[in-house]
Amino acid sequence: MNHQELAELLFPHIHKTRDDYDRIYPPRALKEGAMVTRLGPSPTGFIHLGNLYGAFVDERLATQSGGIFYLRIEDTDDKRQVEGAVEVIINSLRFFDIQFTEGATLEGSVGDYGPYYQSQRAEIYQCYVKELVAKGLAYPCFLTEEEITAIREQQELTKENPGIYGKWAANRNLSPEQAAQWIEQGKPYVIRLKSQGKADASPEDVTMIQVEDGIRGTLEMPENIQDVVILKANGIPTYHFAHVVDDYLMRTTHVVRGAEWLSSLPVHIELFRLLEFPIPVYCHTAQLMKLDDSGNKRKLSKRLDPELSLDYYRNEGYHPKAVREYLLTVLNSNFEEWRIANPDLPMEEFPFSIEKMSSSGALFDLNKLQDISKDVLLRIPASELVDFMKGWSAEFRPEILSLFEGREDYLARILDLGRSGDKPRKDLINASQIFQFIRYFYEDYFQIEDPAPDNVTTPDQIHILEAYLATYDHQDDQSVWFDKIRAIAEESGYAAKPKDYKKNPDLYKGHVGDVSTVIRIAVMGRSQSPDVWEIQQILGEETTRGRIRSRLDWLKS
Ligand code: GLU
């Protein structure tokens, strides 16, 4: 029996050949330089910032070059699968405006290079495994769990590299007859790569391979010597094998993936070479890091850092544009400079490049995200923010949706408060913070939050508010209104101008700022807020007077 016959025995049902698949999945007709990228998430139900980070790179590369960005579901590990996970992936990415041109979509698969679920591609993978077996480049391995554990223990004892390779790969030189006999006896097996690397090379003699990484430049690493599993006992391939076949047949030009895959890159390179497929440009992105409380950089962790989950950003109500813009600042160091030079251009016009990506750790910083968010929200018209607030509350805070529905103009005026002029206010960050920031505009959420200034006695507060109410005219313009406050200050023993108070603090009880604060607290419940006059104009006369009256009632009680 020869290898060819062994391959037939293992895969009698596989009739297609590589030529057939080359015909079914021909090279894509795209213009020169167009990039084909893909996201290959495993449907585990957890979609995280790393997925978005990679997807954003994929999407930028494909979109900028007029190429294709497709979604391939890597569901070869059935133990980790979760119902509905594909919907979660698509919806979460869609929320951040990441759209796939091809692949698995909510409406079914789109495109000519499918199926886009790896679990539906078993026969395709097996065709190539069959070919490798026929060439003596892969073999059935009958090692049991116990035997593999014993090998690992022995390797630990003698401090040798772990794995099934060289002398440890007991079945790599099994005769096809012996293999056939065990198969016929029903002995369970997996298919392993018969690595062509030199397993017994002395350290000085190790063969190095060079790989051009799109982000990291030339990588030099020892060649692979491991006889990795390529097909599991259930006929489903491992990630190593599946992605190599898929990225070839789906004509991927750039494989953007996390740095955790760097260590298995030599395996992948060997597989590409043995299968005689052209190697795509691998782009290994940096690890996502954060500064911990003591200022040390560490990897973002699922257990410790809620901000690793994309749900976190949606729950908090970060606007997708803010998150996208933030991602760009982390991804390309020259983006911030570009943004300063082009404050009004859509960020999609920034020429994103993989060469400008850092390979040494991408630092995520929520404070920075918040700063960027403030700038981004300033560029979004209030009417659009109103829709965003409604969408967010409908999903995450349904109990407050009714505050906004039907009163869109009211919310738009609130959001626009202080946003015009040369020095616009920049205090809107995300939907949940916005709601906290503006909730005093809504009766059910209005409450007195801050104490009055220490230097204003209760009788003075009562006097100030009574005088304010008596002279209040909702039609007053801002300067008439403020002159009245100055007058109240003066006749109550407070300086009409802060600088007068600073010059002669002994002459006054305080200054006009303290008087305004008393009013501010009565109307807004807070000692800090945007312009009081503008707020009163939005609240309306009745509410303004009503709030002052109830504050007076409370102060008198
Ligand atoms: N299925 C792999 C993962 O979820 C994808 C790696 C890749 O993009 O090649 O980590």
Outline the structure in words.
The chain is of the alpha/beta class and 557 residues long. It folds into 4 domains: 161 residues, HUPs (Rossmann fold), CATH 3.40.50.620; 77 residues, Orthogonal Bundle (Glutamyl-tRNA Synthetase, domain 2), CATH 1.10.1160.10; 60 residues, no CATH class; 99 residues, Arc Repressor Mutant, subunit A (Orthogonal Bundle). The chain contains 23 helices and 16 strands. The strands form 6 sheets. The protein has a 4-stranded mixed beta sheet with strand order 1-2-3-4. It has a 3-stranded antiparallel beta sheet with strand order 5-6-9. Strand 1, helix 3 and strand 2 form a beta-alpha-beta unit. Helix 11 packs across helix 13 and helix 18 packs antiparallel against helix 19. The longest helix is centred in the N-terminal third of the chain and has 17 residues. The radius of gyration is 33 Å and the shape is elongated. The mean pLDDT is 94. Bound molecules: glutamic acid. Glutamic acid binds next to helix 8.
Short description:
The chain is an alpha/beta fold and 557 residues long.
